[in-house]
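In the current project phase, work has continued on tokenised descriptions of protein folds. One protein thus recorded appears below exactly as we store it.

——
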Amino acid sequence: MTPLMSTLFLFSVLIPTKLWYAPDQRIPIDVKADAPVTLVLTDFAGHKVDAKVDTKIDSPKQADLTQMYPGLPIGTYLLSAVPQSGAEANAFVGTPLVVEVRSDKRPGMPPGPIVTHIEPLRYAVMDTDQGPMTMAFYYDVAPNTVSNFLNLADEGYFDGIAFHRIIPGFVLQAGDPLSLDQARAGTGGPGYTINAEFSNRPHVRGALSMARQGDPEERGGNAPRYEWANSASSQFFVCLDYERTKALDGKYTVFGQVIDGEKTMT
């Protein structure tokens, strides 16, 4: 299969004034809805965060996220504009915003938020000669991996690159610019590596995960050592059967899920 990748989002209703905010900065959000909306903040599990002030917006205006939700704990959230007509929180209009309150994870650094990153929620559609696959992403557990993947997609990196490794009942693997060179397929990348973001997300059917170099010591059931764990770059794989891919749990970075394209994976 040879893919053509595009990243998409719905029309903009919520527009941040910039993408990065220091802890002591206001976070103004321009709300440009055509009808009255209520701003709703949830975590990635769908649990609603209680606001400290009224979040109803009756006309286009600028809202202050720090006033509505002061002191947000470290974590990843979704800010949605929901019609005031009584619709559920998932019946939003426009594109939700991903709000990520980050800490400094370097050794010895003090706890607490260091910066807040805001961006529109995006998904990707990969068109292949076997059909399309629509992909959603786990901003909450793999933000750097998601950002790397979406940046490469936006820049056309994946266009025309073949799935160079197809193992029925196991995985479909792509992302190698050398994929059309049979002698070197599986060895290429963008010229850099990214750190692992292992989590408890399972490698179920349709899961997107990052390929990396295998550590010889893993064969004994050990966790990959630093050099091997942090060797991913652009190659990724789509899981096909959890009975075979569950052994990858906790050892590879799961960063998304195919939400449409069942026929393409078969």
